[in-house]
Automatic annotation (TrEMBL):
GO terms for molecular function: carboxylesterase activity. PANTHER family: SI:DKEY-122A22.2. Residues 51-170 form the AB hydrolase-1 domain. InterPro entries: AB_hydrolase_1, AB_hydrolase_fold, Meta-cleavage_hydrolase. Pfam families: Abhydrolase_1 (PF00561). Keywords: Hydrolase. The keyword Aminoacyl-tRNA synthetase does not apply. Its EC number is 3.1.1.1. The gene is nap. The keyword Cytoplasm does not apply. This is Putative carboxylesterase nap.
Amino acid sequence: MKIYKNEKAKRKILETYNKLLTMWGVDVEEKNIDTKYGTTHVITCGDEDNPPLVLFHGVGDDSALMWIYNAKELSKHFRIYAVDTMGGPGKSCPNENYNKSFDEILWIDEVFIKLNIEKAYVAGVSNGSYMTHHYGIMRPKKVIRMVCMAGSVSTVGSPHPIKRMMKVFLPEALFPTQKNMIRLIKKLSGEHSEVFTDNDDIMEHYLNLLKGFNNMAMSKHRIDSFNDDQISRLSGKCLFLIGEADPLGDLEKVREKLEKHKLEYQFFKGVGHGINHEISETINKRIIEYFVQ
């Protein structure tokens, strides 16, 4: 399955990806590791003696964009491993096994093994939030603690997120002009959309993503639901950070669900889906506090 709509789109996305990476403000190393499902691209930074922190981005974006306001501060405390999701618009390259029989947990297992990670802190945003608690449920011994941002726990009976996503992203995503991109960003954001719109490099990259990424490439990632016993494995080791102005979540239902399962959470007024961008200093501090105890 094609990740990019054409070679020109791929070239533009990767050019602006590299530009954003230079703006992280910290020395980085890029690794390509072979897995059953293709080559997985990982950005690393921070002292190798620091505890490992594995980061997962959302759908339709990549590590370079997702962690641009977080990597420098987090890397002072952790050895960062920012993973480009298989099938996403980053630098990971799926093979035929991805198209035929992708298993997200087995893929992350292999990433951990190839990076020599026995256990790690894990954090993610949006779909990366799902990936984070999915792995924490299925591999509790490999995850020390988790922070899940802009997402809730996936329970039996939860509606598929695609319906709410379509309401938010359409019609702007169908007609990716500069004007529509700004409208979409403001729909997704809370009171601080300027962290995106005032950064020309982010805007250039995001427009390239809207124009050139084939969203169907992520269709191999299933969204599983978890029962009460499985969710109990998150208790005491998982924190949910959620913006009250996030249009992709139903705030009261999210609160009810998290409280039912006795999961730690914090809501932020005036914050939207791009929580780790919109209030990056607050989120960086909260992640560090939760992990470094």
